[in-house]
Structures
1.
Amino acid sequence: MKAKKRTERQYNRAKRQATRRRANTLLRDADSIDLLSMLENYKTGVSNPDSPWPAAGQFNPLTGEAVIYPSTRGEDRDDVRTHELTHSSQFNSSLKGRPNNRTVREAAEGLEDSIGEVQRGTMTGKQKYVIDPLELEAFIKGAHNVASEQGVDFSGDFESIREQLNRIPQDKTNPNIRGLISLLQPSGDSFGNAWRDDQKQYLQEAFNGVAQYKDMDENFTPSNLAARRQRNLEGRMEKKTSEEAIKEWLQRSRDSRRGGRGTQQNESGY
């Protein structure tokens, strides 16, 4: 009984912490400068070297901003907002990030440690990107609501989750679902990656952890800090002319190419 109470206390503390961090986040749609910078970084491989697609969203713990990019498919972006707000709940005040859900964290870290260089070399760029512990939690949470509406049960075993995800019609998927489908592909398909039984167990536990603690992502009201960030952003934008904005974008692009990943290492985008 004592151990159970301690587990519940830890869970409730993590839940409050995640809610507070999301409430402090400035969630906004991308402006023209964001779009130009994202496309430039994607083209030069700066933003996410393992990511084979342009970002759908991006969270920057340095500024506390989560930026949502428009969909080229005309898709709703609710799943992307969930993904980026999950990232916002992962970073503490020291800008150190880890999965907020303990079950997901232990499973994702176990999976990452189990992958050797030879196996990693057979993986696709999508798979390498999604297995990052921070990304794995965000992808599963971002996929959960729509996948559940399509009859996917994340509390099942590895094979049932994979098969159910593959049965979702293409027009009902979203970036998170497509990322997970790519991750779970079995040996012999176009991705050519074989998960061992122990690795399937890690992946199953990560999915199960999100299903078990889905109420951790409760609704929240933006905090005073988020409102202040919004006012600061509006103030900066009012001071900019279109010429200044273009100069800023050119400078950011040059800095990205000259300095490698730079502060992009602290950004979570997909």
2.
Amino acid sequence: MAAERADLNGILDQLKTIFDSKNTIGASPIDLSSDLNQRVKKVLTVNPDYIEPQASHFPFVTSFITSKSIDLDDIAGSQQLQGFREATIGIEIVGGVFNSKTADLTKDPADRDINYLMENIELILRSDYNLGRKIKWQKADSVQYYSTFSAKNHIRIGVLKLNAKIFY
């Protein structure tokens, strides 16, 4: 059997397909846009550094690969092309919201929206452990929350770190 490449682009494409399919009213287990001030407008597979910070792009979800750790324990030096490899893929799934509809000084609607969006993303991922058989398993590791520039600009970002195991 010839060596194969890890299908990293296929994993990202599958994430986009999953999030697109769950961005509908009545999606199960949850609508990606559930409880948000407005529906997710863009599902992407690009590094968020390439997303312009303008209101028309929000809310968005994007996924990108950050790392691939390869385990070679079971592969002899002369069997590099014949052996299967095991790898853990680091994926970041970034959600971004813009919400300037502040009506109550005790609550920030942008903070509420990013909390809902990131929880929706995690629940959707938990419902598809192997991402349509693109991976063996995946597990969310953490979620970090950020306000870009200043808290007064109404943009909030969440970054979910996901680990995915593959054999190739």
3.
Amino acid sequence: MVYIPSLNKVQVGLETTYGASTTATIQLPGITDIQITPKVEAEQLIDKRGSAMPSHESFIKRRWVEGSIEGYANYTEMGIWLNGMFGQSSVSTGVSTYMASDWSTAYVEKSLTLQYGQDGLTYTAAGVLPYDLTISGATGEPVTFASKFFGQSLVDTTTFAALSDDTVVWMMGPQATIYLDAGTTIAPGTTPMTDIGFRFAANILSNRVPVWHLGNQQPDSWRNGKWGGSMNLVLEAESTALAHLGSIIDAVTTPIGFAVRIRITNASQTLDLDFVGEAIVPPNVITDLDGTVTVELNLLPTYGGNAAMLTCWHASLTSS
């Protein structure tokens, strides 16, 4: 068969146990780019056998995949990416919550079986887990997501599950509001930046890596690291934003901390993405966006001291 890129599609199955390959149940719409790179760690045996040849034997030691996926964000499927990043902390009255835990709490991340290609030539990887998730939005634009992941080794197959594109509700920039308050002990979501927000980009890092144990050529588990990432906000340079800029520039003892909420809602469905961070690097002054003077904040995550936000990242999703 001739491979035709325009026929590509992506399906996922939700695993109950890490690496237990499962049949796809969701065909993802809105995917704009996906890259899956097979990784093989091999070694030639360089031994003393009376020969000038470079090698007579070799080993394949470990096999896995690394990759990335990007697309338009929607309320229906956002929980897939949040579950993989954080693990679900609770579900109550249709609201799922997620948080960057200290790993002592058993919020088990949910892995995927991911299938990519077209009918007749598909590639499948089980045990897919994200370690990097970015959610971005801008005025007048759809909200987008981008995730980097690792997984078990790639398997080439020939068929997809008989699925249609999932029915979804898209997230849009006109549905988004930035909330911003100075301080790391204040609850995110207190003060809306009404009619002054232009852009946001929330980059969540788990510093998660795959782990191999004896008896496994593919990763059989993973190890979590320190949470990281960043929050980038672009606001119009009016009095509130300029006051925050002045506080950052004037700080002499410790960097100024902020509590941030990105709320995206169509009234019946809502994503709240909460963040506590610090302005470690001061922003440039008098930046510009299409002729409008802006304040651009680049914040790094830190521990939040509010009783409702004892972490650096937190999310809640009402998807139906």
4.
Amino acid sequence: MNVASIDPRMGSDIVAEELEDLKQRIIANMQNAKAVATGNTIRSLHVIRWPFGATLESQQRMPFGVLETGRRGGNVPQPVIHGVPVGFAAIIYRWMQAKGIHATDVPKPKNPWMVSTISDQERADRSLSFAIATSIMKKGTRLYQDGGRDTIYTKEIPVTIERVQKRLGMLVQAIVVEQIQATIPTR
């Protein structure tokens, strides 16, 4: 490797490659933990390259840490999708649909003569989503109540840091060796 041919972006490439590998391990961990419903979080993960570095970012509105900590109880900010406010129960309803979760006890309407625009099953599912959302707002998710986990990304980050340090160290060592060899006169 000629010192003159060493591009400073080589270090950036190493970081980007390792972050791409980290992203794949995080995705595999999410799938193994059954922490994937719609796939939006997975699709939101991107390695962004910079001239002299790279970052792994989630472009999801939800804080990424919730994958390991769960959501604590408390007020829920009302998200906006395409300019329309969407309630927490609606988010839970979409999550239920993505996971294939349905209410098993489908009650008949209290007023059978009323015409409904939705099926009895959908009404029961929406009712269940409201109950789940209310429970989460009061008590937090089961993951939060159980103390969370560290199996999605926490254990993967030190591995990635070690690999980046090792690879960058090897690159710097090669540069230093070449520079020393270039200064030694040949006979």
